[in-house]
Each structure stands twice: as structure tokens, then as C-alpha cells.
């Protein structure tokens, strides 16, 4: 497994989760990375992207102000801190390069109950 997302779970609305994405098969520190999500019956959508350092970060409007993306290049790991979760955030969350270059992993399920 080269991209392993973890940290999902079931949380009530207003709660928080921290997702992790460990990259075991690539030169992690050389590339921008992003989080994506796919809700049931919907297309996969962009959530956030981070540059090779913290100098470039973009969020989808739907998560701006609630989610925080970060990375630790020494650990080949990227994070997504999710606060004020809402039922519409329910989805499988994936990590990949912004253009989806790598093979998609299994993702991690986030379920937010109302």
C-alpha cells in the first residue's frame, strides 16, 4: 500500500476528527499533496491541497475555516484536522497528488451524524 489514509470514524455534528495520510511508496517531500472526498452517489471532490511546504494551501469553499491541512515531510505524512463537522461532510476521504497521479488508496470513512 503506498497511500494509506486513516483516522476516520463516526462523530456527531459539531465534532472533530484528524485524518492522516502516510505515503510509503513515493518521494513524498517533492510533491504537492491533496485531500479529496467522495460521498455516496456523488463524484469525488477536492477538499484541500498543500504545497511541498506550508507556503501554499487551498481549501474548497465548503470546508474553509473548519478544516486545516498540514504535512510532516520527515514522516512522509499529511494530515487533515476537521472541526465543526457537519452531516454533509460524510464521505470516504482520500489522499493523492492534486492531479490524482498515484493509485488511489482505500480511503477512510468519515460519518457525521446529526
Structural class: mainly beta
Q: Total number of β-strand segments? A: 10
Oligomer: single chain
Proportion of residues in β-strands:
over 45%
Report the total helices. Answer: 0
Largest sheet: 6 strands, mixed
Q: Which segments are poorly predicted (pLDDT under 50) over 5 or more consecutive residues? A: none
- What is the end-to-end distance? 33 Å
Shape: globular
Query: Radius of gyration over alpha carbons?
Result: 13 Å
Widest sheet: strand order? Answer: 2-10-9-4-5-6
Q: Give the rounded overall mean pLDDT.
A: 95
Order of helices and strands: EEEEEEEEEE
Specify the helix fraction band. Answer: under 10%
Question: What labels would you give this structure?
Answer:
114 residues, mainly beta, 6-stranded mixed β-sheet, 4-stranded antiparallel β-sheet
Commentary on this structure:
With 114 residues, the protein is mainly β. It contains no helices and ten strands. The protein has strands spanning 3-6, 9-12, 17-23, 33-38, 45-50, 57-59, 67-72, 77-82, 91-96, 108-113. The strands form two sheets. It has a six-stranded mixed β-sheet with strand order 2-10-9-4-5-6, with no helix packed on it. A four-stranded antiparallel β-sheet has the order 1-3-8-7, with no helix packed on it. It is globular, with a radius of gyration of 13 Å.
Amino acid at each position: 500500500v503506498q497511500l494509506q489514509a486513516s483516522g476516520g470514524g463516526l462523530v456527531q455534528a459539531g465534532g472533530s476528527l484528524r485524518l492522516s495520510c502516510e505515503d510509503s511508496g513515493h518521494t513524498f517531500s517533492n510533491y504537492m499533496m491533496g485531500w479529496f472526498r467522495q460521498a455516496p452517489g456523488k463524484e469525488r471532490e477536492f477538499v484541500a491541497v498543500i504545497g511541498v511546504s506550508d507556503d501554499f494551501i487551498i481549501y474548497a469553499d465548503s470546508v474553509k475555516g473548519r478544516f486545516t491541512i498540514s504535512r510532516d515531510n520527515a514522516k512522509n505524512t499529511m494530515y487533515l484536522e476537521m472541526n465543526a463537522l457537519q452531516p454533509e461532510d460524510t464521505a470516504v476521504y482520500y489522499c493523492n497528488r492534486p492531479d490524482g497521479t498515484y493509485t488511489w488508496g482505500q480511503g477512510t470513512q468519515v460519518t457525521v451524524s446529526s
